[in-house]
Design brief:
This protein has 10 helices and 7 strands. It is of the alpha/beta class. α5 runs parallel beside α9 and α8 packs across α9.
């Protein structure tokens, strides 16, 4: 907490344990209870409440009774925001969605709801539908380091030979700096020759792609049309329903 206070982030997280998937009920229960104890200690040690929001992290693995207990215990501590941790850790998507949809309604409606470690377009949309306000993930830059870009029609691996003479932008529907100024072929050349500019351009694009996606999600929420937007996005992107 002293380090986080000194760094000065607007949002900081209580210490928690994220269980591997799968984990036994006994281990997950002990881990969840440890996370709750740590949360109380972190709140007590937090010194800049007026300037930094400390969020508690709901754990409990894939056991609903533990998720419920974790949420209830953390709400008693009265954090300014709450996060869901311990999902999107390698489990099947159906299990992810089941716990997400179960846990989110347990969180206060009048405080920010944060889903940790989620960055794929489908998971971001599903999180918004479930009632999540914010997500975070290293995925856009991690994919960039491997020569991969999000596009409106699915991911492309720019380092592949098929893009050697592709003089179109990464995504014709994107208005980012990379798409307005560089072609797939040139970015591929940069990546293949280990020029750092290639990774930077892909990072700029991937972050802008997800930013644009969430802007559209907010509009569709206002229009009460997010379900239809998801279905159309899935169809175009190539996700299975």
């Amino acid at each position: 907490m002293e380090i986080e206070n000194a760094l000065g982030p607007d949002i900081m997280m209580a210490f928690d344990e994220c269980c591997k998937y799968p984990s036994t009920y006994e281990y997950t229960k002990a881990s969840m209870e440890r996370t709750t104890r740590w949360a109380a200690r972190c709140k007590a040690a937090h010194k800049r409440e007026e300037k930094q929001g400390l969020f508690g992290i709901i754990q409990g693995g894939f056991y609903k009774d533990l998720r419920k207990q974790s949420a209830e215990d953390l709400i008693k501590l009265d954090f300014p925001g709450y996060a869901i941790g311990g999902i999107s850790v390698g489990e099947p998507k159906e299990e992810f969605l089941d716990i997400l949809r179960y846990t989110t309604p347990l969180m206060p409606e009048n405080k920010p709801r944060y889903l940790m470690g989620v960055g794929t377009p489908d998971y971001l949309i599903e999180a918004a539908i479930a009632g999540i306000d914010m997500c975070d993930c290293v995925l856009p830059t991690r994919l960039a380091r491997h020569g991969t870009a999000f596009t409106s029609n699915g991911k492309i691996v720019v380092r592949n030979a098929t893009y050697e003479r592709d003089f179109t932008p990464l995504d014709s529907e994107c208005d980012c700096y990379a798409c307005k100024n560089y072609t797939r072929a040139y970015i591929r050349h940069l990546v293949k020759t280990n020029e750092i500019l290639g990774i930077r351009l892909l990072s700029i694009h991937n972050i802008k792609f997800l930013t644009n996606l969430m802007y559209k999600v907010r509009i569709e929420i206002e229009n009460d049309n997010l379900g239809n937007f998801r279905d159309e996005f899935y169809r175009k992107y190539g996700y299975e329903q």
